[in-house]
């Protein structure tokens, strides 16, 4: 579960003082996200106002992280943080302004072209490098993170083993044969991972991909809480799950995207792809609580259970390789 003050907690008077410092007005508001409000500062920069000064350490990690990212021939750009300043109870962050609108604006009605561009962009992000490399799996350090040096499969196994026990009763009620299936999933990751590793965004859905028109991706944004180092196929699996994830056609679209994503993969990598879909559903199922509702009745938990209760992914993963 994620607990932090969000943009709704920004006091109006404190916000006005920050805007005055940067010679901005209410009309310069570009948008409001979960954690911050974003204002147009100038042609090349935006100002983000955060309600929680406690996020400064995380933002400084992000600032350093963005400075270390590279891509051999990307046609889109990644974020860059110029400055982080405390203003009383608020944080003001100046970032690179990336032109465009979120891809979700262009996929209100989906189609083969936008879906193909989406998958190509996710694959292309998987070629991003970080120099020097991180000395840990998670970008933002966590007390629950496995020891340094844990390989990718070991990291997933330990994270799942830590996550599952408190959720086991409700998952057993919601997913037929869940305990045995979860055991099979853990066995899938029993052997050490020896493949290519790079940056995993972890929350790569159309809202975090910017476009200047229906054919041109201009940037990828909002790395952070779910960003880690590992198999780039994980991002591709998550992206297939996140596209139109709460729309009525989400299951049909997910099946179609996974089939496309698996087209050039061998049997083992196809199993990995579907295993990652299951892992992501398990790791995120309880992250978005809703007031006065048990977790099993929340929208995101039901989305995750719909994935976990279907036979498709479990059958695709099959037995241990």
Automatic annotation (TrEMBL):
Transmembrane segments: none annotated. Keywords: Transferase. The keyword Transferase applies. Residues 24-321 form the Protein kinase domain. InterPro entries: Aminoglycoside_PTrfase, Kinase-like_dom_sf, Prot_kinase_dom. It comes from the Bacteria. GO terms for molecular function: ATP binding; protein kinase activity. This is Aminoglycoside phosphotransferase family protein.
């Amino acid at each position: 579960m994620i607990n932090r003050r969000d943009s709704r907690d920004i006091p109006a008077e404190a916000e006005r003082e920050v805007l005055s410092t940067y010679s901005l007005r209410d009309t310069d508001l570009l948008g409001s996200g979960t954690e911050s409000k974003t204002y147009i500062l100038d042609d090349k920069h935006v100002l983000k106002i955060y309600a929680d000064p406690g996020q400064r350490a995380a933002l400084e990690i992000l600032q350093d992280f963005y400075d270390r990212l590279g891509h051999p021939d990307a046609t889109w750009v990644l974020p860059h943080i110029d400055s982080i300043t405390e203003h009383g109870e608020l944080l003001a962050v100046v970032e690179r302004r990336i032109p465009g609108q979120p891809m979700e604006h262009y996929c209100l009605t989906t189609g083969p072209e936008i879906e193909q561009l989406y998958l190509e962009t996710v694959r292309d992000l998987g070629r991003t490098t970080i120099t020097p490399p991180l000395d840990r799996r998670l970008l933002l350090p966590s007390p629950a993170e496995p020891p340094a040096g844990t390989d990718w499969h070991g990291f997933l196994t330990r994270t799942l083993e830590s996550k599952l026990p408190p959720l086991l009763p409700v998952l057993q009620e919601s997913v037929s044969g869940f305990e045995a299936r979860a055991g099979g999933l853990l066995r899938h990751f029993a052997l050490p991972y020896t493949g290519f590793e790079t940056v995993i965004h972890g929350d790569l859905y159309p809202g975090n991909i910017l476009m200047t028109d229906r054919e041109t991706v201009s940037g990828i944004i909002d790395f952070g809480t779910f960003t880690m180092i590992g198999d780039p196929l994980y991002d591709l699996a998550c992206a297939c799950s996140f596209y139109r994830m709460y729309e009525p056609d989400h299951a049909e679209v997910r099946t179609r995207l996974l089939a496309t994503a698996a087209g050039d993969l061998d049997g083992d990598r196809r199993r990995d792809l579907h295993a990652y879909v299951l892992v992501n559903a398990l790791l995120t199922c309880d992250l978005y609580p809703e007031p006065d509702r048990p977790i099993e009745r929340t929208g995101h938990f039901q989305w995750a259970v719909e994935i976990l209760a279907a036979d498709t992914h479990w059958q695709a993963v099959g037995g241990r390789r």
